[in-house]
Every structure is written in structure tokens, then in C-alpha cells.
Design goal:
By secondary structure, this protein is α/β, with parallel strands linked by helices. Helix content is 31%, strand content 23%. It folds into 3 domains: 331 residues, Rossmann fold, CATH 3.40.50; 144 residues, Rossmann fold (3-Layer(aba) Sandwich); 122 residues, ANL, C-terminal domain (GMP Synthetase, Chain A, domain 3). The structure holds adenosine-5'-monophosphate-propyl ester.
């Protein structure tokens, strides 16, 4: 899409400054202090990052060079050595944090468990020993397909501890999706569970892994956590129980120091083509970015009980449930299940019972809470909260205000954090004690981040006009490449504007220079805060024997942000029917996962195309939104196609 088409209609002007007592205790307590540090971070970046890296992380050997930048490839803290797990765990031992809760866990059935830093450290050491005893070594890839239980974090940190590279696959993805990811990164081992609890039912994780592993020759070992006691089949020689290999292993493990650029994890995310992209993050820069943003954006204090509701299967779970939070020695709440099980007040009940002070969730959840009604939060004491956060998609001002008043009681600042799987850490967000918030705006950039809003030629657009959001300088937590496809990395992010990172988002800056993210401008949808590539859905659909052609588009949706609408043409002789619609919806869920299940399927005799054969998605979007087709249709090959789609609508 050309940047001329990006318009932003949000014209929210309310400004909220944190209450004086919040500011007085904040890690960054004034706008002047933010401006000063920001100026230092962009005027002398290498000096700034060197100081921050020394202050925030534990290094075994110091780096020789802060940044080696040969666009589009960055190396940070070259020659420096550290161990990420040691930073998240060992360095808190022997301090007052040793017996502090690292993870406060609540399972969906109501079971609870607290792991202190000392206990979490022991678990991670056991798991690291178990992985090594299975022959896993530095650089080996390990797939993690787990429910939201402490062992998911244990598995991630154990990989980090031995230098293995984890790839967490969200528990809602299908066996097809697991298979593709394992094969793409050639994982040697899988860590999973006999199931996880979701809305009172068991998610059959192990059964999904078994199906995936029928076609993944690289996998030698599967470790299975017993979570639900759901019967599973265990393949001799390949599958072992967590309680046999991990729980019985020694709780002592010596962490080796690894180079700062050692790969830490691969996380697959949707792009504008059919194949998910394996975003690669490395150790030192990623940990510095997540540690600093966690400390300053969430204003972390020793006494906080912090809860981020994201699953570890997403980047938010990596950066702000596990790495950035534990590295700060904070207490992280982990909840396994659904927000409305057994009742729609589950989240508020957790906040009340655990006295959560910082709560970080997604706009789609906030809109669902709004719809469920105020009675549910009102039933609980939410006065422990002091800060709220939002991530994943633009938050509409109504949802912002509801969150502010009904959940935050009008006293909690809201940090609307803009970032991506690729950026690793938060990039644009208020620092809650320093930057006044405007509902719907992610406000201003974090230290060292230099974003701009530009036109197609790369020229900055005037204030209040729309353009493309780019980041003009490398930052420590940036992705390093796409696993196994460095060309795609260059093409995807660095070729629209050479040497400059293109985010894929549309944006506008207002007269205070605040950033207002409009949303994706490529063929990526944001459904309930999760990225889904239209091409992925289309390729899933055409893999069904009755489908000839498919086009997936987004329709604005009050709850989910965007709903997924697909237009399908069937093969000759195949009859349309409601049953077939349902079959196709299930087919997509099986191929990708339930989160990609189309909200609506529309059969069409033909799809609108240009004379050169390109599907005109813009027209389909307009049709899906229920409006008339506006704008230019002169490149359309056959207008009758559109006319018939509209009349069927
Ligand atoms: O479009 C932006 C939207 O989510 C995209 C990144 O998705 P993902 O890599 O899955 O990471 C989500 C969690 C960081 C972005 O390109 N997005 C994320 N946060 C915001 C947002 N849009 C507006 N405001 C946000 N705070």
C-alpha cells in the first residue's frame, strides 16, 4: 500500500499525567529526565549502551566493541560474554531476592504454586542437566510446546543456560504448524506436556506433537511434563517423562559463558507470504533491551507483583513474562487458562488474591471485559494495582478510558507499548512517571530508538499526516536475521528504505510529536492482537481439495480488532453449502491453529482481479466491511465479479 492511503482518524486530545505520588516514586520521574536520557542515548549511543549494559547485566567478559553495524546486520557487545539464565537467576542468589517469589503460578483448575528465585534456579539447573544428558549442546534447537505453566519458563531458561536455541510454539497452534516450525529449524528435541487446561477442557498437546513428529526426522527426544494426567502414548527410545529425567537430575549446574551474539531463540511470526518467518534473537542485546524496558516502562520495584497475561508462545511472553522480568529480579505471575473460566471475573480475582501491582494485557481482552460488564471487576478489590499496560494492537480511546477508570480506579497510568516480535523489546511507550499519556497513542520512543514516519520516498511526512513507521538506527534487542533466510530478512525489513528498518505499520505523529500507530499496511492481519498472514490462510485453504482459489482479508471487528473474512472459489463441480463452509473453517484451524479460523467464509464465482491477474484485496476489504466499493476500479478486469459479490453480501 502506498503511504498516501494511510489516514488516521483518531483525534484524541485528552492528556493524562501520572499522579504526583506515582511520579515521586518512579524510576524515571519527570519529562525532563526522560528528555535528558533520551538525548544522551541518541547523541552518543555507544557510550550510552555501554554504560547501560554494564549497569544492568552481569558479564563474564567485557565486550571489545559496543556495536558493529553493517546494514542490515548488527552485532552488539562484540566479544562480550554472558549467560542469559545466570542473569535471570544466579545473580539474584545470595541477595535478598534469593527467597523472593520469582514465579507465582495459578493453574486454571485453581492449583497454585510459588517458585522462589532459589527454587526456580534449581529447577532450571535440573532441566539443563537433563537436556545435556540427552546430548543437547550449544546451538542445538529445541522446540517447546507447553501450557502456561512454570515449566515452560524453566525449559526456556534451561535452553538459554546450555546455549541451546529454543523455539516456543504457541499451544494453540496445530500439529501442521509444529511440524513446519520444527522442520524449518531442524529441532533435535521437543519439550511438551500431556496436556494443558483451557476453559475446563484438556488441550491435547502431546497428541499434536505425535502427529507432527510423523514428519520431522530431526527430532531425537521428546520430554513430556505431566500436567493433566491425560493418557498419552509414549514412544520408547524417543519420549521421556519430565519427572524421570528433569526432576531426578542434579539441581547444580555450572553455567558457561557465551558470546553476546549467541542465538537465544527463534520465534516464528506471520509475514505477508505463506511461510512464517523465524525471527532470530541473540543474547546480550536482547537481554539488555528487555531488562531496561521492563525496568523503566513497567517502573519495576522490588515489592511489585507483576502480571503479564501473554502466553510464552508469543514474543510478549518471552520478553515480559520471562527474560526482562526475571532479569530484574521481579515477581512474575503466571496463569494457565482462560480469562472467563470458571467466570468472567477470573483475572480480577487473580489480581485481588495475589495483590498484583502491575497488569499488562491486550486491547482485545480489554474490549471483551468491557462487554462482559463492570459487575465482574467491581466484585473484587483491585486497589493493589498501580500501573496498567497494553500491547498487541492499537487501543481505542473508549477501551483506554474504561481500563483507566474501571480497572485502574483513575489512579494508574497506562503504558501503551508499541513493539514487535522483530524488535524484541518495547520501542515506543510512555515511561509512566515521565511521559503524559493520550488514550490511543503509544506516545514517545524508548532510549536509543529513533522512529520516523515517512512517505514512499523515505521523506518524513508533516505532523498529523499518515505515513510508514520506520526505525532509523539499530537497537540492541533487534532481530538479527530470519532463520535460514537472510535474503528474506533483507528484503522484508531493509529494502524499502536501504539501511532503515521498515516496521510494516502505518503511523502518524501529532503536534506533540506523539506516535499514533494505525496498524499493518502489508498483508498481515491483527486478529485479537495476533499476527496472521493472509497468505498463510489462503495457502491453507487452497490445500483443501474443493478449493480453487482463496483470498483472505480483514474486516474491522469491535472485539477482535480485525475479523478474518475469506472469499473462496470452488473447483468445478463442487457445490456450495453451509456444511462446506464449516469444513473449510475447521480445515484452516487444523492447518494453522484455532486463532486463524475464519470468522466468515464467502463463496464467489470469481475473485476481482486486475488485468495482470492480481487479486484486488482493497475491493474485497470494502466488500467484507459491508460497504460499497469505492475508489478506483479502472484496473479491474471484470466489474461484474464485484457486482455479484456485493449483491450476495
Ligand atoms: O501492528 C503492530 C501491532 O502488532 C504488530 C506486532 O505484532 P507481534 O510481532 O505479534 O507482536 C505483538 C506484541 C509486541 C505491530 O507491527 N502492535 C503491537 N503493539 C501495538 C501495536 N499496534 C498499536 N499499538 C500497540 N501498542
Amino acid at each position: 500500500m502506498s503511504s498516501e492511503n494511510i489516514t488516521s482518524v483518531a483525534r484524541e486530545s485528552r492528556k493524562h499525567t501520572a499522579p504526583r505520588d506515582f511520579q515521586a516514586q518512579a524510576n524515571i520521574g519527570s519529562f525532563a529526565r526522560y528528555r535528558k536520557l533520551y538525548a544522551e542515548s541518541v547523541n552518543a549511543p555507544e557510550k550510552f549502551w555501554a554504560e547501560q549494559a554494564a549497569e544492568h547485566l552481569l558479564w563474564r567478559s567485557m565486550w571489545k566493541k559496543v556495536l558493529q553495524w553493517k546494514a542490515p546486520h548488527a552485532k552488539w557487545f562484540v566479544g562480550g560474554k554472558l549467560n542469559v539464565a545466570e542473569n535471570c537467576l544466579d545473580r539474584h542468589l545470595g541477595t535478598p531476592r534469593e527467597n523472593k517469589a520469582a514465579i507465582v503460578f495459578e493453574g486454571e483448575p485453581g492449583d497454585q504454586r510459588t517458585l522462589t528465585y532459589k527454587q526456580l534456579h534449581q529447577e532450571v539447573c535440573r532441566c539443563a542437566n537433563a537436556l545435556e544428558s540427552l546430548g543437547l549442546r550449544k546451538g542445538d534447537r529445541v522446540a517447546i510446546y507447553m501450557p502456561m505453566v512454570p515449566e515452560a519458563a524453566v525449559a526456556m531458561l534451561a535452553c538459554a543456560r546450555i546455549g541451546a536455541v529454543h523455539t516456543v510454539v504457541f499451544g494453540g497452534f496445530s500439529s501442521e504448524a509444529i511440524k513446519d516450525r520444527i522442520n524449518d529449524c531442524q529441532a533435535k528435541a521437543v519439550i511438551t506436556a500431556d496436556g494443558g487446561w483451557r476453559r475446563g477442557k484438556i488441550v491435547e498437546l502431546k497428541a499434536n506433537v505425535d502427529r507432527a513428529l510423523e514428519a520431522t526426522p530431526s527430532v531425537e527426544h521428546v520430554i513430556v511434563l505431566e500436567r493433566t494426567k491425560n493418557p498419552v502414548s509414549m514412544q520408547t527410545g524417543r519420549d521421556v517423562w519430565w519427572h524421570d529425567v528433569v526432576s531426578r537430575a542434579s539441581h547444580r549446574h555450572k553455567a558457561k559463558a557465551f558470546d553476546a551474539e549467541t542465538p537465544l531463540f527463534i520465534l516464528y511470526t506471520s509475514g505477508s507470504t505463506g511461510k512464517p518467518k523465524g525471527v532470530l534473537h541473540t543474547s546480550g542485546g536482547y537481554l539488555l533491551g528487555t531488562t531496561m524496558t521492563a525496568k523503566y516502562v513497567f517502573d519495576l520495584k522490588e515489592t511489585d507483583t507483576y502480571w503479564c497475561t501473554a502466553d510464552v508462545g508469543w514474543i510478549t511472553g518471552h520478553s515480559y513474562v520471562v527474560y526482562g522480568i526475571l532479569s530484574n529480579g521481579a515477581t512474575s505471575v503466571v496463569y494457565e487458562g482462560a480469562p472467563n473460566h470458571p467466570e468472567p471475573d477470573r483475572f480480577w480475582s487473580i489480581i485481588d488474591r495475589h495483590a498484583v501491582t502491575i497488569f499488562y494485557t491486550a486491547p482485545t481482552a480489554i474490549r471483551a471485559f468491557m462487554r462482559w460488564g463492570d459487575a465482574y471487576p467491581k466484585k473484587h478489590d483491585l486497589s493493589s494495582l498501580r500501573l496498567l499496560g497494553s500491547v498487541g494492537e492499537p487501543i481505542n480511546p473508549e477501551a483506554w478510558m474504561w481500563y483507566f477508570k474501571t480497572i485502574g480506579g483513575g489512579r494508574c497510568p497506562i503504558v501503551d507499548t508499541w513493539w514487535q516480535t522483530e524488535t524484541g523489546a518495547i520501542m515506543i511507550s510512555p515511561l509512566p512517571g515521565a511521559i503524559p499519556q493520550k488514550p490511543g497513542s503509544a506516545t514517545l520512543p524508548f532510549f536509543g530508538v529513533v522512529p520516523k514516519v515517512v512517505d514512499d520516498q523515505g521523506k518524513e511526512v508533516p505532523k498529523n499526516s499518515g505515513g510508514k513507521l520506520v526505525i532509523t538506527r539499530p537497537w540492541p534487542a533487534m532481530l538479527r536475521t530470519l532463520w535460514g533466510d537472510d535474503d528474506r530478512y533483507t528484503r522484508q525489513y531493509w529494502s524499502d528504505y536501504p539501511g532503515i528498518y521498515f516496521t510494516g505499520d502505518g503511523c502518524r505523529r501529532d503536534s506533540d510529536s506523539y506516535f499514533w500507530i494505525v496498524g499493518r499496511i502489508d498483508d498481515v492481519l491483527n486478529v485479537s492482537g495476533h499476527r496472521i498472514g493472509t497468505a498463510e490462510v489462503e495457502s491453507a485453504l487452497v490445500s483443501h481439495p474443493s478449493v480453487a482459489e482463496a483470498a483472505a482479508v480483514g474486516r474491522p471487528d469491535e472485539l477482535k480488532g480485525q475479523a478474518l473474512v475469506v472469499f473462496v472459489t470452488l473447483k468445478n463441480g463442487v457445490e456450495t453449502s453451509e456444511a462446506l463452509k464449516e469444513t473449510l473453517r475447521q480445515h484452516v484451524a487444523r492447518e494453522i491453529g484455532a486463532l486463524a479460523r475464519p470468522d466468515s467464509i464467502r463463496f464467489a464465482a470469481a475473485l476481482p482481479k486486475t488485468r495482470s491477474g492480481k487479486i484486488m484485496r482493497r475491493l474485497l476489504k470494502e466488500i467484507a466491511a459491508g460497504g460499497a466499493v469505492k475508489g478506483d476500479t479502472t484496473t479491474l478486469e471484470d466489474f461484474s465479479v464485484v457486482a455479484s459479490l456485493q449483491s450476495e453480501g
